[in-house]
Design a protein that fits this description.
This protein is an alpha+beta fold. It is built from 3 helices and 7 strands. The protein has 2 domains: 69 residues; 94 residues, Beta Barrel (Elongation Factor Tu (Ef-tu), domain 3). The mean pLDDT is 78.
């Protein structure tokens, strides 16, 4: 639709140019007869009509340009697309998931630490991470965040314990480590082994 309006606008502009040239030719004659004056008047009316069409088409083109701008989706940060969940040409609504992507320069690993060891940790503590994909290689990391609740509090099927019997089970708390990326080797979802230095 946008391309069709562009073509109509160009055609209208060309018509206006030809009409103005015809008026100039008529006025340039040595003698202007009554018929010539009537022709000039008709051409002038045609020019006014074409100018109105040009203005309308230009306004429509500007509106379409604004509409196209609103349909551009800008990512919050530069990254790598991992998965797309819609096909080209498919209609989406606000809030729909379109794709999954990540920043390859910002990598972390989430670990669950026993509550008996949790008290030894603090934000900023050093850690070392090993991944199965690169045996023998170690990645440096630091504790970025300490969880505020045990992982059992977020279980999909919590145990209501209706019988009243209690079995003490050591709980685990989530800890996030920020890893120093090396040559973009690390990828989301890789399995890792973590060693945290609790003496820092």
């Amino acid at each position: 639709r946008f391309e069709e309006d562009q073509a109509r606008l160009r055609a209208a502009e060309q018509t206006a140019v030809r009409a103005r040239a015809a008026i100039s030719g008529a006025k340039a004659g040595a003698e202007v007869t009554q018929t010539g004056l009537q022709q000039v008047q008709v051409i002038a009316e045609q020019i006014a009509s074409v100018d109105a069409q040009i203005d309308a088409l230009a306004a429509r083109r500007e509106q379409q340009r604004l509409d196209l701008g609103r349909r551009q989706i800008v990512a919050a940060f530069d990254g790598v697309i991992d998965q797309t969940v819609v096909d080209p040409g498919e209609y989406v609504s606000p809030g729909s998931r379109i794709l999954l992507y990540h920043d390859p320069h910002t990598v972390w690993v989430d670990v669950n630490v026993k509550e008996t060891e949790f008290r030894k940790l603090k934000v900023g503590a050093s850690a070392k991470v090993k991944v199965d994909a690169y045996p023998g290689r170690t990645f440096e990391a630091k504790v970025q965040r300490l969880g505020g609740a045990a992982t059992s509090q977020f279980a999909l099927l919590p145990n209501p314990n209706p019988s009243g019997n209690f079995t003490k089970v050591t709980q685990r708390l989530p800890v996030r480590l920020a890893i120093t990326q090396q040559q973009n080797l690390l990828r989301p979802g890789m399995m890792a082994e973590v060693t945290i230095d609790a003496t820092d």
